[in-house]
UniProtKB/TrEMBL annotation:
Record protein name field: PPM-type phosphatase domain-containing protein
Annotated stretches, region: Disordered: 1-45
GO MF term set: protein serine/threonine phosphatase activity
CDD domains in UniProt: PP2Cc (cd00143)
Bias (Basic residues) ranges: 24-34
Length: 253
């Protein structure tokens, strides 16, 4: 895969050779009338959002890159979104590694939808400004069913004891609940998606929100978040921030 950065380094255009699909005939999926036009319109609106990068490239604060291997279709998706939720000090990052026959479609769908759901629920939790809410609704992030699902989902959120709560920054508990809710709603949406068969396909999702000096991570699967830091000798050191969530891990199912 190749990439071409713009002059200001804030956007990129990528291209990749066409990859032939695997052998064997596949049963066509039933398509919901009007769903493709809605998705196309939403995709076009997402591409116009300033500070949202999802192709190979770099900005002053981040760079992203993926390259097709020898196994076939590149099923990776990625995103860096500066000024996330209309907050100038906030950045959202995500890497999604698809698997299965439709893994590339699942990964891209989660890349495009999960940040919007996270931002929407974050706004609900903190009662954000109207400008942020308008920015979310402009790109068609959530329809009435999704909004209702966010509000009506009664699954229990793991509690945090009082002593631990006092040690954590205020943003943590709000974003923790928002991450959990967004992941659950995303999972429900994929199960009923008219154009993506998720029975044997899925994706990992390692995502994070950086606000000021705070870093909050939401992770599913075995993609990893690595922090580059320096030790006492000023040697660059890699620190793994996430745990690989595999089926054989106790409590991982």
């Amino acid at each position: 895969m190749g990439s071409c950065l713009s002059a200001d380094g804030r956007s990129s255009i990528s291209y990749s050779p066409t990859t032939p699909s695997g052998g064997g005939k596949k049963k066509p999926l039933k398509k919901k009338p009007g769903s493709r036009s809605f998705d196309s319109k939403r995709d076009e609106q997402l591409r116009r959002i300033p500070g949202r990068m999802f192709l190979n490239g770099a900005t002053d604060i981040a760079s992203i890159f993926t390259q097709q291997g020898k196994k076939g279709t590149n099923q990776d998706a990625m995103i860096v979104w500066e000024n996330f939720g209309s907050r100038t000090d906030t950045v959202f990052c995500g890497v999604f590694d698809g698997h299965g026959p439709y893994g590339h479609m699942v990964a891209k769908r989660v890349r495009d939808s999960l940040p919007l759901k996270l931002s929407a629920h974050w706004e609900v939790n903190i009662g954000g400004a109207e400008g942020s809410k308008e920015n979310i609704s402009t790109v068609g992030s959530m329809n009435s069913e999704e909004t209702a699902s966010l509000c009506a989902d009664e699954e229990a959120v793991p509690s945090v004891d009082l002593e631990e709560k006092e040690k954590l920054p205020e943003i943590f508990l709000t974003l923790k609940e928002s991450f959990l809710k967004a992941f659950r709603v995303m999972d429900k949406e994929l199960r009923v998606h008219p154009n993506i068969d998720c029975f044997c396909s899925g994706t990992t999702a390692v995502t994070l929100v950086k606000q000021g000096q705070d870093l909050i991570i939401g992770n599913i699967g075995d993609s990893r978040a690595i922090l580059g830091t320096r030790d006492q000798d000023d040697t660059l050191t890699a620190v793994q921030l996430t745990v690989d969530l595999k089926p054989n891990l106790p409590g991982g199912q």
